[in-house]
Structures are given as C-alpha cells and as structure tokens.
Request: fold
Amino acid sequence: MQHALTQEDARLVEGLRAGDEAAFAALMRTYGPGMLRVAQIYVSSRSVAEEVVQEAWLGVLKGIDRFEGRSSLKTWLFRIVANTAKTRGVREARSVPFSSLADDENDATVPADRFLGDQERFPGHWAVPPHSWAGVPESRLLAKETMDVVRREIERLPAAQRAVLELRDVEGLSATEVCNALDVTETNGRVLLHRARAKVRAALEEYLA
Reply:
C-alpha cells in the first residue's frame, strides 16, 4: 500500500492522519515554496497563488485518509496544487486547457535546421549542437546576472512548458512523477521539457555569447 513512499514520507502521512501539527509544519516547510512557484504559473498574482496553495493544503488535509501511496507524497502534493491552480486560472480566463499543446505548437524554440531530419540516422538529434560553455568562467555561469537570465526565461515560457521544467529540473521529480502530477502523457511531457530546456538554453547562449 505504501510501496511508493519513503520512510520519511510514510512517517509524515501517519502524522497528518493523526492530526500532528509538527508533521504538517514540516511538510509545509519542505514543499510550500515549490507549490507556490507552481501555482504562480497559472494565476495572475502572487497573492492569488498564495490563496491557491492554502486551498491545496486544505485539499491535502481532507484527502490524506484516502491517500494510498501509489505515488510519492511529493507527486501527490504537486498534483493537488497544479489542479487547484489550473481551475483557478481558468476562472480568471488566463489559461488554456493544459492538455492542449496548441499554445506552443508553432513556438520557434530552436531553429529546425539545428536538428537532424527524419531521413537521417538519428532523427531529432542535434545537427548543430549547442555552443560549449567550457571556456566560460564558472564565476560567470553562477553569477546572479546569469541566474536572473535563467529565471526570466523560465517565467516567459508557456504554462505547460514552465510547469514541466519547474517540476523536473527545479523540484527534481522524475519524468514519470511529473507526468503523473500534471496529468500529461509521457510523449507530451518529453516534448514540453525539450522545448522548455531548449528555450532557456538558447537565451543563455545569446547572453553568454
């Protein structure tokens, strides 16, 4: 029943079911900031995102007795906050159905001629690979200005791409966990992640050139 849970997660689940405030506080400290970032993808302001997160936590408390541990606790939490935020975003008329890729189908993430065509030996792989950053000083790669470029580009991504990137590369969920949390197919998840990463990398290439 709890096969997807770590020992720590199982302890937290039992604590929540027992009404242990310390367990709830620990969960909020661990996952609250990430949940807020995900909520902000779909709604108009930080204050609305904070309301979404509060609503999501209420959903967690109401649903914890039905949680069966088929996914990790982290995946379950992010699924709740993502669904809550998407519902709120639709009410605000700010978002499109997440399952639709129409908002970025024609998005020129990276020029098509940088990838090998269907007739090549490795279709879809880089024909013109990204520039190497081997010669860029580490201090510049890690500088606040560089990190600002990364964050700014992430914030410009379409909602679907941004959500996948946030959960995969910022929160560290596995590809399967991301798809479960956001209710997308593995194929769509791969496409969205590739587009998001390529866009951010293109912005960095331009900045560091």
